[in-house]
Fold this protein.
Amino acid sequence: MKQTILIVEDDQPNLDVMEMLIRKLGYEPVLISNGLEALEYVNKNPPSLILLDIMMTPIDGWVFLERFRNNAAMKNIPVIIFSAAPEVEERMTHIRDPCLGVLHKPVSLNELKDAILRFLPKP
Amino acid sequence: MERKITVAGHSISHTDIVRICVIISLTLSCIFITSISLTRHVETIYAQLFYFPILYAAYFYQRRGLFLAGFCAVIYEVLAYINIFPDTTGMIYTTSQAILFICIAAVVAYFTEKINSSETRFRSIFEKSLLGIVLFDQNTFAIRMANDPFASMLGYSRQELGTMTFARFFHTKEEQRRFFEFLGSSEDVIHFETAFISKSERPVWVNLSWSRIDENLVSCSVIDITQRRLAEQAAVENHQHYEQVTEHAPTGIVIIRDNRIVYTNPIFRAFTGYDADELYGMEIRLLVHPDDQSQFPAFMEVLDSQPSLPDRLVLRFRTKTGDTRLGTLFFTWITRMGSPAILVNLVDVTEHERLKETMLLDNERRRGTMNTVAHELRAPLQPLIGNINLLLQNPETYGVTEKIKEILAQCSLSVDREQQIIDQMLELSVLDAGKVPLKYISFDLPALLQSVIDDGDYASRADLAVTVPAGLTFEADANRISVVLDAMLTNAVNLAKPPRKIRISYTSAPEDTMHRLAIQDNGTGISSAKLDEIFNQSPGNGNAGQSERIGMSLSIAKKYVQMHGGFISVDSTLNIGSTFTIHIPKHPQNAEIKP
C-alpha cells in the first residue's frame, strides 16, 4: 500500500501541480484546501506525511499545526511546512519539533523529493 | 646687647652692678645719717631716709628689696635702741617705722612684680602671636607697635611700620572711610573685613578686630583672609560660570533640594511650560505624570545621607498645558551654596520615542507587507516550476520534443532568476528590520570556501588562486558567511576581464583582531564615485538586470558582515582591478559559539 501524503493548500493551481509531483515521486496524494477540513480528515485517516501551506483561510497553517500536534496520536506524523511566506524561518527558530520540516516555495521536484525522503522511506 | 661679668659663678649685668652700688651707697648713707641724727636728736630726718634704698631695691629686685627692707629695719631698730632706750614712746615709734619699712617694701615688690608679669605676658602674646597685632593712636593713626606677622603680612619691616600711619594701609578710599566710621563709633569692633594694600601694591584681605587700651591707644588684631577671599571669589566665579553653562545648556537642568526645585534652566522651563517663578519651590514630583510618580526616587527626601542615585530614569511628565512629555533623567549630587543638592539633567525624548514607535510600526507594517508580497510573488512560481519539472522529467508522457525541452530549460532558468531576485529583496527587507539572529559556530573556512566555489562552479568561470591557511577556523554564522563569499565571488567574476583571474588570499597576521579575506579580480576597476553605490543597491535603485542583482547581493553581504561586527573594504584601481576585503572579528563579543 502506498504511503499517503496530505497536501493542505488553498491555491488550486498549486494543488494540481503538487498532486502530479507527489504522484510522480511514488506517493499517494490527498488534497484538501481547507485547514479545518484537513483536521477532520487526519483524525479519521492519519496520513504518512503532511505538506502544509501557511497562508490559508479560515485557519492558517500555524493554527492547524498547533491543533494537529495537540492530538497525542499525531505527535509523530511528519509535517513539512510548504510556504512562500518569509516569516516561516523566524517562527521555526522558536519551535522544537523533530518531525517538522520546511520547504520554501517555489521548490523543484528534486528539492521536494529530498525533503520528503528526510521523513519517509523510499516508496 | 647688655654686657655682663661673672662674680663667684653668677653672671651679673653692668646695670645690676650700678644698681647694687647705688643701693649699697644709699643704704650706708642712710645708716650713717640716721646714726648721726639719732645721736644729735635731729628727729625729723632719720626714718624717711631709709625709703630711698628700700623703694629702689624693691622696685628692681622685689625679693631682695624685701631683705634689704628687713636689714634696714633691724639696723634702724638697733640704732634707735642704742640712742633712745629706755624711752618707751620713742622705741614704739622706731619699731613702727621699722615695720613700715618692710610693709612698704612688700607692697612695692608685689605691685612691681604684677606689672612686670603683665608686661611679660603682653610681650609674649605680642611677639609670639600668629595673628598680626598693631597698636596705633586713634587720633593720628601713628603706629606705636606692630608685631612680625603684621609686618610680614604687608611686606614691611617693623622699623618701617614705626614711621607709618595705620590709615594708609587701606586699599581704597572707600574702605578707609568705612573704617573711620566704625572706629568713630567708639565701640570695640570684631570681624571688620577690609582690603589692605601691601608694600608690593598687592591687595591683602584682612579681618580686623580692635579695642581701645586707653583714650588714645587702639590695639588691633589683623588676620590675613586673602586665601579665603580668593577661594570665595573663585567659588562665585565658578557659580557664575556654572549658571552661564546651565542657562545655555541644550538639555533641561533642574536643581532640587529637600525635594523642591531651587533652579531651572530655560530648556527645562520650556519642557514643562512653567516659568521660573512658578517652578521655584515646587515639588518636582508634582510635575511627574501621576502614573509614573511611584517610580520617582524616594531618595529625593533623604538628602542628608546622600544615597546612591539611579543611572537614569525615563519618566512621563505632565506639562502646564496638560500635555504628556517623556524625559530621560540623569542624577548627580552637587553642592550648591554650601549645601548638598541634586542636579537633574533632563533630555526630552518625546519626539525621539514617537519617532521610534512610528519606525517600529512602519517596520512591522513593512514586514507584513513584504510577507504578503513575497507570498504572492513566490506562490505562482510553484505551479510553473512544478509543471516545467514534470514536462522535463517525463518528455514522452507529455510529447515534449528536444526543442520544447530547450525552451522549458530557459523558462526554468528565468524562474530561478526571478526567485533569486525575490529572495534577495526579502532578505534585504528582513535585514533592514534588524530581526535576523546570527547562529555562531566554529567552522573550517577553507572547507566552506571550497564548497561555495564548488556550488557556484566558480573554478570553471575564472582562473582561481586560493591562498588560505589550511585549518583556518572562523567563529561566525557559517551560512551567512557562505552567502557573503558567494556574493563576493559572483561580484569578482562579473567584474573580471577575460581571461578572468581571481585571487583569494587570507592576509591577517596572528596578532590582528580581525580576520581579513581578500578577493582580488583583474577587472576594469571601480571609479571612486561608484564605490559608495555598489553596496547600496536596493530593488528599483539602479538599472534592472544583472548589476542590480549583484548590487543586492553585495548589500546583503555587507549587512551580514556588519552584523558580525566587521566590514568590507574595497581597494580599486581603474583598468587594473579591484580587491574586496572581508574583515570579520576573530573573537566575536557576546556571541554564544556552538562547536
